[in-house]
Amino acid sequence: MPQSIYVNLPVADLDRSVAFYQSLGFQLEEAFTDETAACITICGAIRLMLLTHARFDQFATLPRADPRTTTSVLLALSRDSRDAVDDLLNAALGAGATEPKPADDHGWMYLRTLHDPDGHVFEIFWMDAEAASAADKMPSG
After folding, report:
1. Which sequence spans correspond to the domains of the chain?
2. Where in the numbering of this chain does the VOC domain appear (predicted)?
């Protein structure tokens, strides 16, 4: 099995969360889905595991945070263009997300932030890597 990342998110209403992410064009993986968990593929190597609170708590080693009142992680998801950022954000807003702040436009990077129905924070962005590198905005490596 190739390396993948599975981002585990606790959700209050599994059906609502599945419907939300499917409305954004992401795919439900039936093989990893049951009444307590659902696997959503964002792209080949990136998946969300949406877990009911009880199921999430079985894995967690610390108390579960309330994403509506605290930020424990910012999930950044790149898109191919500014228009693609706007398209995904607008679809998310139509499906029940909120946008907590205005778009952030640096010229070389365009970023919009959304909170999913449970309050998890996603940063949807486009970046011109060449322009960012020329402006010393990206680490060299």
Report:
1. 1-64, 66-141
2. 3-127
For 66-141, the fitting CATH number among 3.10.180.10, 3.40.50.880, 1.10.10.10, 3.50.50.60 is 3.10.180.10
Domain 1-64, CATH: 3.10.180.10
Q: Assess whether pLDDT exceeds 50 at residue 49.
A: yes
pTM (two decimals): 0.87
Type of residue found at 52: T
The amino acid sitting at 34 is D
Q: Give tens-digit pLDDT for 76-135.
A: 999 999 999 999 999 999 999 999 999 999 999 999 999 999 999 999 999 997 876 766
Other beta carbons less than 10 A from residue 55's beta carbon: 19
